[in-house]
């Protein structure tokens, strides 16, 4: 595959933040029961109180982050969990894995998977559920994107594109469009009805690691890998004019692993959050691209996933120190502080 790489070295000493980053002074961080026994790869919000996470210990964990207690742990994958997604308003959870499968879980039932989606030839790095809850989209390092019927587990469509090593997948809310990022440095928009690519964004200089869609579906965020401050940016795109770059958020020193839109608060500017292998989380003004705050989580290693829970709460997954609950103050001068770990 030439120079395309997907496996990042896990030595935490490679990801130390250099001088220049702001460090929040936190009175005391509450330590809850750990959700996992090893590095965490992903975290998503299930309800206003519950999150779902997965990682190297192969467990899919549902955790009440407000109460600080583990609710349920699902075991079924034979290798690490790579990505997760949830069907909003339901108890369904979908987990993608390096074991080449996606499993479906129901929080309201026992700990056995209720559906299995098999067919990819390499690690599954992208999973997204349709707005109506009937279809599932998956993307893999085998260069393919697949569409599945959730009820039957049947693969309805598959499309393989050379060098399209999928890194993340998002289903645009309320539409038939799907956005995916790739190790070939491009972003593709798919039509779920024809299972064809309708738009391809201009290639970036570095691998695209993650993507997110704004709540009004006007904008797309993507993030880049990199090192030494080269690459490492998040990019804001206009989905109404595919390929139109609106802003870039630069300041991380290592790979920007995740970027998300912060749920808006009335009267406050629109915000974007990003997390990086440099052990920092940054808050940005969406429109001006100004970095408003940097929180460094010393010793955490790579910060690989963010899950906004509400306009003042973010969850962050790390390689070394578990899950972090962060409080975002969207005042005149936004600030971010760690309040709990689990």
Q: Top keywords for this entry?
A:
0% helix; five-stranded mixed β-sheet; Methylamine Dehydrogenase, Chain H; single chain; globular; four-stranded antiparallel β-sheet; mainly beta; Thrombin, subunit H; WD40_repeat_CS; 342 residues; WD repeat-containing protein 31; repeat
Spans of at least 5 consecutive residues with low confidence: 1-26
Structural class: mainly beta
Q: Taking strands numbered 1, 2, ... along the chain, how are they ordered across the largest sheet?
A: 1-31-30-29-28
- How much helical structure, as a percent, in the residues? under 10%
Oligomeric composition of the shown chains? single chain
- Percent in strands: over 45%
Major sheet: 5 strands, mixed
Number of strands: 31
Tally of separate helices: 0
Shape: globular
CATH level 3 topology of the domain at 204-341:
Methylamine Dehydrogenase, Chain H
Q: For the residues shown, what is the average pLDDT?
A: 93
Q: What's the gyration radius in Å?
A: 18 Å
| Name of the CATH first level of the domain at 204-341 | Mainly Beta
Task: Characterize the structure shown.
Among the domains are: 30-118, Beta Barrel (Thrombin, subunit H), CATH 2.40.10; 204-341, 7 Propeller (Methylamine Dehydrogenase, Chain H). It is 0% helix and 51% strand. The chain contains no helices and 31 strands. It has a five-stranded mixed β-sheet, with no helix packed on it. A four-stranded antiparallel β-sheet has the order 2-3-4-5, with no helix packed on it. Strand 14 and strand 15 (177-182) form a beta hairpin. The model is unreliable at 1-26 (pLDDT under 50).
């Amino acid at each position: 595959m030439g120079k395309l790489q997907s496996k990042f070295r896990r030595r935490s000493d490679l990801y130390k933040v250099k001088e220049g980053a702001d460090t929040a002074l936190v009175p005391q961080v509450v330590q809850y029961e750990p959700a996992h026994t090893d590095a965490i790869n992903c975290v998503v919000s299930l309800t206003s109180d519950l999150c779902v996470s997965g990682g190297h210990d192969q467990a899919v964990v549902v955790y009440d982050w407000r109460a600080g207690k583990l609710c349920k742990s699902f075991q079924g994958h034979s290798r690490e969990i790579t990505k997760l997604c949830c069907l909003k308003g339901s108890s369904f959870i979908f987990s993608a894995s390096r074991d080449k499968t996606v499993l479906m879980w129901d929080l309201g039932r026992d700990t056995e998977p209720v559906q299995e989606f098999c067919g990819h030839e390499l690690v599954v790095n992208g999973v997204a559920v349709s707005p109506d809850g009937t279809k599932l989209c998956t993307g893999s390092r085998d260069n393919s994107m697949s569409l599945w019927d959730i009820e039957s587990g049947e693969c309805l469509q598959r499309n393989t594109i050379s060098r399209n090593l999928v890194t993340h997948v998002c289903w645009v809310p309320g539409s038939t469009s799907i956005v995916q990022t790739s190790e070939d440095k491009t972003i593709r928009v798919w039509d779920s009805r024809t299972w064809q690519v309708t738009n391809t964004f201009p290639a970036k200089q570095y691998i695209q690691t993650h993507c997110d869609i704004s709540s009004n579906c006007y904008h797309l965020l993507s993030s880049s890998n990199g090192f030494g401050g080269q690459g490492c940016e998040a990019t804001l795109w206009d989905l109404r004019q595919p390929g139109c770059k609106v802003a870039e958020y630069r300041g991380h020193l290592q790979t920007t692993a995740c970027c998300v839109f912060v749920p808006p608060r009335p009267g406050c500017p629109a915000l974007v959050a990003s997390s990086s292998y440099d052990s920092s989380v940054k808050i940005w003004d969406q429109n001006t691209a100004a970095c408003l705050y940097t929180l460094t989580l010393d010793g955490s290693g790579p910060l690989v996933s963010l899950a906004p829970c509400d306009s003042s709460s973010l969850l962050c997954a790390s390689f070394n120190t578990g899950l972090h609950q962060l409080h975002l103050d969207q005042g005149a001068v936004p600030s971010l502080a760690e309040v709990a770990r689990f």
